[in-house]
Specification:
Elements lengths: L25 E8 L5 H9 L3 E5 L5 E7 H8 L4 E6 L2 E4 L11 H4 L2 H5 L2 H6 L8 E6 L13 E6 L15 H10 L15 E6 L7 E2 H13 L4 E4 L1 E2 L2 H6 L5 H12 L3 E5 L18 E6 L22 E4 L3 E5 L3 E5 L2 H17 L12 H11 L19 H4 L3 E7 L10 E17 L3 E8 L6 E7 L6 E20 L5 E8 L3
Parallel strand pairs: 6-8, 6-10, 7-8, 10-12, 12-13, 13-14
Antiparallel strand pairs: 1-3, 1-4, 2-3, 5-9, 5-11, 15-16, 17-22, 18-21, 18-22, 19-20, 19-21
GO biological process, one term: proteolysis
Organism: Geobacter metallireducens (strain ATCC 53774 / DSM 7210 / GS-15)
Family: Belongs to the peptidase S8 family.
């Protein structure tokens, strides 16, 4: 949509005596400051004959409406960091399909394709993880969603009722992909036990202003969400030329990521080498769409999954059956459907107990790294512009099975020692012996240098198989294996994390 707005003023005869500046065109803007806005900053806006719409809490900015001729003067004030148009974002609308395949082919196929059922069989279903859907709202009465719905906010009307009134039920469809209940009816989501929060920033007809989207993400920060899905977008072409006009949104996305939230967004359906905002930001996982054959999604003769160097992951996005308002279901296609597959995957991975490996107080970067590292490579080897690191794969990312081969070597015992670092949780250990006389296993928590003995076992036969279990209470624990026996004797060790 056009960035510039025109204010049409009906001039009645009785109004002709008003001062000329009464007819000045106004513009919706976001004013950024060098510090958090207080009375001084608000008075600057009022002094420029502005009306304040919203004072933001996590970025140094005020949303306001100002006379156009005042904007240039306001920019000259040393307290002002920037003034940008409060541009209007749109939902990334589903594309019209060329044809519709049989229902048997499409029912929850995306959830299966990314291995969500395998993760669920391991006990990882997103339980306890809070997912904010920044969108058009949610039909929280839907039988597949009501048990997982936990609340939200309507920033369009500033009420506590974020019901989805969009004609295509955009937000409700996204919600079902993420967390429709596994209740024997309808569809099932990627994370069927995750908690859903509706952050309504789009009206039924008018889209959503950037400051409203910013406010929605601020709400997610304040309410300690774990994951944010953003199936929304603005032209990546504009961002590549004028990145500064998106600074308020970029700042709040960066702030959310720093707060430990995993942000996921759709790349767009424009079939161009340009990624929509906010997916183009470094703090956000940009998700492209794939079809049932793991190929780049082509929605019709015009629309296809947008691509570019910023694409990080790919996920199913064609003929996705999910929930719609009124208790029903519908097939929709687009990157808006791909993004929630990854948001749900992030919730599942968080519920698996993935640790804060770098100790920075956030697990968002570990989730991102695990999803990237375990993705199924598609297209050119490694990261490419169509699929990023590949198709998200929960079967691989929740497979916490580790294998070690340990061998008794000549020389000091430490030359034969092997170690592995594990997250908190319970594990089974299977040891297949090949000639060792004894195997000692000790643990060290974090950087502690004092070893806590876990167990040590002797073998009664050279080919014996032993099974044991161990519970690790530290956020991360290193297990150290030391073999005893003849030179060349060995053992194969399989360590599997047990479902909670």
């Amino acid at each position: 949509m056009n960035i510039l707005r025109t204010l049409l003023v009906a001039v009645m005869g009785a109004m002709l005596c008003l001062p000329l500046d009464s007819f000045a065109a106004t513009k919706k803007v976001i004013v950024g400051f060098t510090r958090a806005p207080k009375d001084h900053e608000k008075n600057l806006v009022y002094g420029a004959r502005g009306r304040i719409h919203r004072t933001h809490q996590h970025i140094r900015a005020i949303s306001a409406e100002l006379p156009e001729e005042e904007i240039a003067r306001l920019k000259q004030d040393p307290s002002v960091a920037y003034v940008v148009d409060n541009i209007k974002f749109t939902l990334i609308r589903p594309a019209e399909p060329l044809s519709v395949p049989s229902p048997e082919y499409v029912d929850s196929w995306g959830v299966l394709r990314i291995g969500s059922n395998v993760a669920a069989s391991r006990g990882y279903k997103g339980a306890g993880i809070k997912v904010a859907i920044v969108d058009s709202g949610i039909d929280y009465n839907h039988p597949d969603l009501k048990d997982n719905y936990r609340g939200g906010y309507n920033f369009v009307n500033n009420t506590a009722d974020p019901f989805d009134d969009d004609a295509q039920s955009h937000g409700t469809h996204v919600a079902g992909i993420i967390a429709a209940r596994d209740n024997g009816t309808g569809v099932v989501g990627v994370a069927p036990e995750a908690s859903l929060y509706a952050v309504k920033v789009f009206s039924a007809t008018a889209g959503g202003d950037m400051d409203t989207v910013v406010a929605g993400i601020e709400w997610a920060i304040d309410n300690k969400m774990d994951v944010i899905n953003l199936s929304i977008g603005y032209s990546g072409d504009i961002y590549s030329i004028y990145p500064d006009i998106f600074k308020p949104l970029k700042d709040v996305c960066d702030r959310a990521y720093q707060a430990g939230i995993v942000l996921v967004a759709a790349t767009g359906n424009d079939n161009r080498e340009t990624i929509s905002v906010p997916a183009a930001f470094d703090s956000v996982i940009a998700v492209a769409a794939t079809d049932q054959n793991d190929q780049r999604a082509v929605f019709n003769t015009v629309a296809a999954s947008s691509y570019g160097a910023k694409v990080e992951l790919a996920a199913p996005g064609t003929y996705i059956k999910s929930t719609v308002s009124g208790g029903g279901y519908a097939l929709l296609s687009g990157t808006s459907q791909a993004s929630p597959h990854v948001a749900g995957a992030a919730a599942v991975l968080l519920s698996s107990g993935i640790a804060d490996a770098n100790g920075n107080g956030s697990r968002a970067d570990e989730v991102r790294a695990r999803l990237d590292a375990t993705a199924k490579d598609l297209g050119d080897p490694g990261r490419d512009k169509y699929f990023g690191w590949g198709l998200v794969d929960l079967s691989a990312s929740t497979d916490q099975t580790y294998k070690l081969h340990i061998e008794k070597k000549k020389g000091m015992p430490k030359l034969s020692t092997q170690s592995i670092t594990l997250d908190k949780g319970s594990y089974s250990l299977q040891v297949r012996n090949n000639g060792l006389e004894r195997l000692a296993v000790k643990s060290v928590v974090g950087s502690c240098k004092e070893f806590e003995r876990v167990f040590a076992t002797g073998f009664t036969s050279p080919l014996e198989e032993l099974n044991a279990s161990v519970t690790l209470d530290g956020s991360q624990t290193t297990l150290v294996f030391t073999p005893s026996g003849d030179i060349g004797s060995s053992a194969d060790i399989t360590i599997t994390k047990l479902a909670r």
